[in-house]
Write a structure and sequence with these properties.
Blueprint (H helix, E strand, L loop, with lengths): L1 E3 L4 E3 L2 E6 L1 E4 L11 H12 L5 H5 L10 H11 L11 H11 L4 E3 L3 E2 L4 H16 L4 E7 L2 E13 L2 E8 L13 E4 L9 E4 L4 E10 L1 E3 L2
Antiparallel strand pairs: 1-8, 2-3, 3-4, 5-13, 6-12, 7-8, 7-12, 8-9, 9-10, 10-11, 11-12
Protein name: Peptidase C39-like domain-containing protein
């Protein structure tokens, strides 16, 4: 069984969400300036329908500075950090979001995971719970020599066991006929890197190190 958050649809643009009109979700590094965590956050906000694609990718978009969207864009586009080319911890993402955009979204503290099997299993349960609420989950993975942020949007379950997690990855292109462009294959890695992460160009051993759930305010 494959479970994907319900608002996502394949349109003639590619994987999209309907917000007044169809909004293409995937953002690839180069369309905006910045680091993978911010790209993943912006895809998250597109799925939550609190921003439109044009607002995100059009750097000429302007908002009044005293509005929530104005503060958000000041934090992530105009500040001295810009979109933080050197990367963001999820705690920083949450802090900046709550400082600028709490009118529209809320978030609990990020959850961190060790490389132990029990804590990796906790991530899977968090992903299942978040997907059941039809929300994406910002996910940080670590590998030998680095780390990367992606957006988990669903999973595959076989005989009651989650085998794969499907992700939107800002570091790679996505086919217009696909909901995802990165797959975490659980429990097939080596050593402390328990899982495999597969894209069209890479196949690496990884572990999940952090997650962040962002919720649209009612």
């Amino acid at each position: 069984m494959i479970k994907i958050i319900k608002d996502l649809e394949i349109t003639n643009f590619g994987v999209s969400v309907y917000n007044r009109k169809w909004q293409l979700i995937h953002l690839q590094q180069g369309e905006m300036d910045g680091a993978c965590a911010v790209y993943s956050m912006m895809m998250n906000l597109l799925i939550l329908k609190v921003l439109t694609r044009n607002q995100v990718v059009n750097l000429n978009t302007s908002f009044k500075g005293n509005t929530a969207k104005g503060r958000l864009f000041k934090e992530f586009f105009i500040s001295t950090e810009g979109l933080c080319r050197n990367g963001f911890y999820f705690s920083e993402i949450k802090q900046k979001l709550m400082h600028s955009f709490k009118k529209f979204v809320s978030s609990s503290d990020p959850t961190q995971y060790s490389s132990s099997p029990s804590e990796q299993a906790l991530f899977v349960e968090e992903l299942k719970s978040t997907t059941a609420d039809n929300l994406p989950l910002m996910t940080a993975i670590s590998f030998r020599g680095g780390a990367h942020a992606i957006l988990a949007i669903g999973y595959e379950e076989q005989e009651g066991i989650v085998k794969k997690i499907f992700c939107l990855d800002p570091g790679y292109v996505i086919s217009p006929t696909s909901y995802w462009n990165g797959v975490i294959i659980l429990n097939e890695g080596n050593g402390k890197y328990y899982h495999k992460y597969v894209t069209d160009k890479d196949n690496v051993d990884i572990t999940v190190c952090e997650s962040l759930k962002i919720i649209k305010n009612k």
